[in-house]
Amino acid sequence: MEYNTKREKLIIPEYGRNVQRMVDYALTIEDRERRTAYVNLIITAMYNVNPDAKNMVDFKHKLWDHLYIISDYKLDVDSPYPMPDKQERLSAPQALKCHYNNIKFGPYGCVIEKMIDKVISMEDSQEKETLIALIAQQLKKSYLQWNRDSVDDELILQHFEQLSKGQLHLSEDFKLNTTKNILNAGKTHKVIKNRPATKTKKTNQAKKRF
What global pTM score does this model have? Predict the structure, then answer.
């Protein structure tokens, strides 16, 4: 009995061992025309064993790229696509720039901070006052997503003061929405979103005609 642990490692496991063996055989075919014809059969086999490949963008190009990778970039055939660059695939991807360390308060994220900076730069107007109030309310909503057990309005307002660097001011009669109202609004939204569509009277009458 031959165990998988003793077999040659699969380069792209999604296509299975048979496809890899077919590619290995294609490398032994000396006639280029025959080799190309055989490789086209391999492409069909690759699609049959991995039909999800059709969901990929430009899936035919992907199949040919995977074929070259399985052959260790040694396959010389007439292909509708150029052979991918081996060094580009082997090179390490560039590190993503992460700005999470610069976020002052985790529950609010960087988007809220950018919004506050944008509003700070706006000229005084009714629109600016409205945005200031909306941002303060959003702070409490975001905080409740992070911690529903305890939320202090005074703490939210302190955070707003710090995030805006004291440059945004709420009106004297401003009040944050109550925790109960915010949570109930979220539940109501979910109910409406999941509620099945009701049949209209016109739709029922149309069905009776048929």
Answer: 0.44
